[in-house]
Amino acid sequence: MTQSVVVQVGQCGNQIGCCFWDLALREHAAVNQKGIYDEAISSFFRNVDTRVVGDGGSISKGKICSLKARAVLIDMEEGVVNEILQGPLRDVFDSKQLITDISGSGNNWAVGYKVFGSLYQEQILEKLRKSAEHCDCLQCFFIIHSMGGGTGSGLGTFLLKLLEDEFPEVYRFVTSVYPSGEDDVITSPYNSILAMKELNEHADCVLPIDNQSLFDIISKIDLMVNSGKLGTTIKPKSLVTSSAGAVKKWHQRPFDAMNNIVANLLLNLTSSARFEGSLNMDLNEISMNLVPFPQLHYLVSSLTPLYTLADVNIPTRRLDQMFSDAFSKDHQLIRADPKHSLYLACALMVRGNVQVSDLRRNIERLKPSLQFVSWNQEGWKTSLCSVPPVGHSHSLLALANNTCVKPTFMELKERFMRLYKKKAHLHHYLQIEGMEESGFMEAVSSLSGLIEEYNQLDATKSMPVEDFPRLSIAV
């Protein structure tokens, strides 16, 4: 069994991370009711005997003593991390695996990357090495951060290069929250474009998330619940939108419900690596099968169902609807319409009471409405995990390498150019040692190159698919 380490950076990264660890504990508690430290739990948690001082307290099997998250928490403001350490999850985090400062990065990528990057490089490396030493077989680093602020975008992408240099064989999966057009950080286009260059060069897979899409999804569920259309069929212990375990408490804190959707994305992404099933998919298989070209590693995600239905025996129609919803633009975690764009590859990660025949039937049903590149018409990767999310009978995570991400990048570039043409706010960046204006041009050039690669793929959409003759086998 492999292990993964979660590195949560900045306010957004730590808030999503906090939700993730809460949901992960609930999920394993629901499955592992005997309290035995097993391989599934070991993928994200260490078992520690707190009576032993130092690093000698790790326990590889037997009863669970004290679980510690395989995590590194980084923020250049203390607020969110302090809140976590005072909350119900305080004992899950190893105090030696935290890095905080007081001043913050002031919504400035250059401060996060250039100033705090060099200042904290050795400390960050030390924490990462320590996390790696606690793993038997480290497979992946999950980085959670936002693109619009200073610490998440700057320090978050700085450590990507560190990880590549220090752990070249370990996969780097990045969950990046992109700013919406109504973002209240004026410099977010600068921060996002500068961070994008680092993601292009140093990430293995990026899961872009759009705040506006998350908000729209939560609003839709809210409307359905309050209108009474779902009747009493919503289970109280659903983990998709509420870690509080009650639908009416979604909005205890700003972004709580939105963060929980992203946390569930990460849970479902790793479910096949943690639990048994008839079709397992490891994290390295996602990168191998879904990323045909190094820079085109941005995967659009959708999660269905978004609310919990009560019945366990799934009627075929309802199960088929789950597959249909995964390709609907209303269920994507960024504003995108994959059905009307070009697929390079697609992964379907199913959990719960679903058969291989259900999977194959739905792929055949949906294939005619989806356009794949001519050289990868059978570009499907599938997994079936027998353990459903808590409160669900079944769920589906779809990951699409699709040209529908291009409009998000084009809009970001337009917002960047509006500021950059006026040289607005540029002096805040250029006064940071090591930051030069050429860095902005290199970053926008990198993004333009990425957009052009998607343009070239889109240009092949109308090309006929070659039907190669198959080898005849004499029987």
Automatic annotation (TrEMBL):
Keyword list, A-Z: Cytoplasm, Cytoskeleton, GTP-binding, Microtubule, Nucleotide-binding
Entry's Gene Ontology molecular function annotations: GTP binding
- Is Protein biosynthesis tagged as a keyword? no
Look up keyword Oxidoreductase and say if it applies: no
TM helices/strands, residue ranges:
none
Domain (Tubulin/FtsZ 2-layer sandwich): give its ranges.
Answer: 279-414
Where in or outside the cell it occurs: the entry states: Cytoplasm, Cytoskeleton, Microtubule organizing center, Centrosome
Q: Where is the Tubulin/FtsZ GTPase domain?
A: 49-277
Question: Superkingdom of this entry's organism?
Answer: Eukaryota
GO terms for biological process, alphabetical: microtubule-based process
Q: Name one GO cellular component term.
A: centrosome
> Assembly and interactions?
Found in a complex with TEDC1, TEDC2, TUBE1 and TUBD1.
Member of which family? Belongs to the tubulin family.
Q: What is this protein called?
A: Tubulin epsilon chain
Source species of the chain: Neomonachus schauinslandi
